[in-house]
Design a protein that fits this description.
Pfam families: TauE (PF01925). The chain is mainly α. It has one domain. The chain is 80% helix and 0% strand. The mean pLDDT is 84. The chain has 10 helices and no strands.
Length: 260
C-alpha cells in the first residue's frame, strides 16, 4: 500500500527516538513525530499518519510510565482515574473536531502557551518542590481541567496535550515537575489506547512500519525518563520551556504561514 526509502525510514526512526525522549521528559513528542510521518507519506490520507503516530506513541509512553512509577512517587490510582476521564473527554473532542475550524483556535492556544511560559519564567521555583495542602476542591478541579478540559482539547486539536497536563498538575495538585510528568505519562497511556482503538477500527495504522518506530520511541522514552528522574525538576522545567517555544512556533507557522 505504501513505499518508503531506506533514508526516509531512518529519518522516521530518528524522529521517533527523539519524540520518545521529549515526550518522556515533559510531553509534546508528537510535535516532531507526526510531521515526520506526514512528510514521509504525503500520498496517504492524514488519518494513517495519525493512527501510526498513536500506535508508536503508546509504546513509548507506556515504557516511560513504567519507568516513572517504579522510581517516582506517582499516585497511580489518581493518574488512571484522570486518564479515564481524559480518554472519554477526548472522544467528545474528536466528535466536535470536524465542525470546528482549527484556525480559530490556534491564536487562543498560542496566547495561552505564552502565558504559561511567562508564568514559569517569572516563578523560578514553580514545580521544583511540592507545597501546600491538596484539598478536595483542588482534586475536583484537576479532574475538570486536566481530565475533562485537556482531554477534550486532545481530541479536538491535540498539540501540546502532555505539556498542558504537566502545568495543570503542578498548579492544581502542587506536584513537582518530575511527579507531574510521571503522572502525565499514565494519563497519556489511557488516552492513547482509546485513540489507537479508534484508528485500528478504521484500519488506518501502518503496521509494517509502526513496530520499528515503536522500538525507537520506547528507547528514547526510557532514556528521557531516566534523565528526568536523575536531573530533577530543574531539568524538566528547561525542557518544558523549550517545548512550549517549539509548540508556539509550530502553531504560528500553521496559522500565518502554511495557512496563509
Amino acid at each position: 500500500m505504501y513505499d518508503i526509502s531506506l533514508t526516509a525510514a531512518a529519518m522516521l526512526c530518528a524522529a521517533a527516538a527523539l519524540a520518545g525522549w521529549i515526550d518522556a521528559v515533559v510531553g509534546g513528542g508528537g510535535l516532531l513525530q507526526l510531521p515526520a510521518l506526514l512528510i514521509a507519506f504525503p500520498q496517504l490520507p492524514p488519518a494513517y499518519a495519525l493512527g501510526t503516530n498513536k500506535a508508536v506513541s503508546v509504546v513509548g509512553t507506556s515504557a516511560a510510565a513504567v519507568t516513572y512509577t517504579r522510581k517516582a512517587p506517582v499516585d497511580v490510582r489518581l493518574a488512571c482515574r484522570l486518564g479515564v476521564v481524559a480518554a472519554l473527554a477526548s472522544v467528545g473532542g474528536a466528535f466536535f473536531a470536524a465542525g470546528v475550524d482549527s484556525a480559530l483556535l490556534r491564536p487562543l492556544i498560542i496566547v495561552l502557551l505564552l502565558a504559561v511560559a511567562a508564568f514559569v519564567v517569572l516563578r523560578p521555583h514553580f514545580g521544583h518542590a511540592p507545597g501546600g495542602v491538596v484539598t478536595r476542591g483542588r482534586v475536583l478541579a484537576a479532574f475538570a481541567v486536566a481530565g475533562a478540559g485537556i482531554g477534550f482539547y486532545d481530541g479536538l486539536l491535540g498539540p501540546g496535550t502532555g505539556t498542558f497536563l504537566v502545568i495543570a498538575l503542578v498548579a492544581l495538585l502542587n506536584m513537582d515537575m518530575v511527579t507531574a510528568s510521571a503522572t502525565t505519562k499514565v494519563v497519556n497511556v489511557c488516552t492513547n489506547i482509546g485513540a489507537l482503538a479508534m484508528f485500528m477500527w478504521h484500519g488506518t495504522v501502518l503496521w509494517k512500519l509502526a513496530p520499528v518506530m515503536a522500538l525507537c520511541n520506547m528507547t528514547g522514552a526510557f532514556v528521557g525518563a531516566h534523565m528526568a528522574l536523575k536531573r530533577g525538576s530543574g531539568f524538566v522545567r528547561v525542557v518544558l520551556l523549550v517545548t512550549v517555544a517549539a509548540l508556539v512556533g509550530k502553531l504560528a507557522y500553521d496559522q500565518w504561514v502554511a495557512g496563509g
